[in-house]
Specification:
Strand content: 25-35%
Largest sheet: 7 strands, antiparallel
Oligomer: single chain
Number of helices: 8
Radius of gyration: 20 Å
Number of domains: 2
CATH topology of the largest domain: Rossmann fold
Strand order of the largest sheet: 7-6-10-9-8-5-11
Number of strands: 14
CATH superfamily of the largest domain: P-loop containing nucleotide triphosphate hydrolases
CATH class of the largest domain: Alpha Beta
């Protein structure tokens, strides 16, 4: 079971898409939106985008909103306010269940700048919170962070010490519990796994208040805020928009320019990958 219209996997190839395109394997494609899903504008708009149609940005819905802003500064200010006060106070959604997504890392509405902005708003400096600088980041106790590469060797334990294990993987999101300058270690709680990092391993982590749409693949969030601003045609694509919309379980808010949303819908460009799997399945590989 899968969705070939999502972004390709982070690793090489596009095995699911290649298997479908080979025509060798029996497949069934579901296209009908059933009654329960028809009440969700998230589902309806995801379907529209996937069909190359503009999502309904004007309808007032309980789960899908478009909020136009005419400057990068206004986009950033609104995202900060939504995460820090408006969604927690007016909709009862805790900040750690809100995920900001952007197509890009760079620029004012890219993830690097948004993470700095959101860290300052959601987890500001305090004499009670230890910090550690690493590269471009200032890690702070309480920060939300993401593991950005597979590490099969890092040890973890349950907080109650009922079990131990090894391995934290690309895309795992957790919160910094402690930073200990004396032992040069940092502990991060990933759900119910407490992992300890040497300071030399901090390059495996990055802030996760905001993340790229690519890095959100395979995950689902109660509430998603998506930026829609100018950028590279490679990143402003239909598959990026479709993937971002389908990350939201209960609420999706798009912040930015309607014109950018239209550009993404029209840009059906896909990342071509040549693996030979399709030909092998068809028995035509040399």
């Amino acid at each position: 079971v899968g969705d070939p219209d999502q972004l390709p996997p982070v690793g090489p190839g596009f095995p699911f898409g290649d298997m479908l395109r080979s025509g060798v394997l029996p497949t069934v494609r579901l296209t009908e939106i059933f009654r329960q899903a028809q009440k969700s504008l998230i589902v309806m708009n995801a379907h529209r985008v996937n069909q190359g149609e503009m999502p309904d940005l004007k309808c007032v819905s309980s789960d899908f909103f478009f909020m136009r802003r005419s400057s990068e500064e206004a986009v950033c200010t609104l995202i900060r306010d939504l995460c820090a006060t408006r969604l927690p106070q007016k909709m009862g959604i805790p900040t750690d269940q809100i995920q900001v997504l952007s197509p890009t890392r760079k620029g004012a509405v890219g993830t690097v700048n948004l993470n700095r902005l959101l860290q300052a708003a959601l987890n500001p400096p305090s004499p009670d919170k230890k910090e550690r600088a690493y590269g471009d980041y200032q890690f702070r106790e309480g920060d939300r962070v993401m593991q950005i590469r597979n590490n099969y060797d890092i040890l973890w334990k349950k907080p109650d010490a009922s079990a131990v294990g090894a391995g934290i993987f690309n895309g795992d999101v957790g919160h910094i519990q402690t930073i200990d300058p004396a032992s040069e270690t940092m502990t991060v709680l990933f759900d119910d796994r407490l992992a300890e990092y040497d300071f030399t391993q901090l390059g495996e982590l990055e802030p996760a208040y905001a993340m790229t749409v690519h890095k959100s693949q395979g995950s689902e969030y109660r509430a998603v805020i998506l930026t829609a601003w100018n950028g590279s045609p490679y990143l402003l694509s239909r598959s990026i928009l479709y993937t971002a919309i389908t990350r939201a379980r209960e609420l999706l808010i798009i912040v930015g320019r309607e014109e950018t949303v239209g550009t993404m819908v029209e840009n059906a460009r896909k990342n071509r990958r040549y693996s030979g799997l399709k030909l092998r399945l068809q028995g035509r590989a040399e």
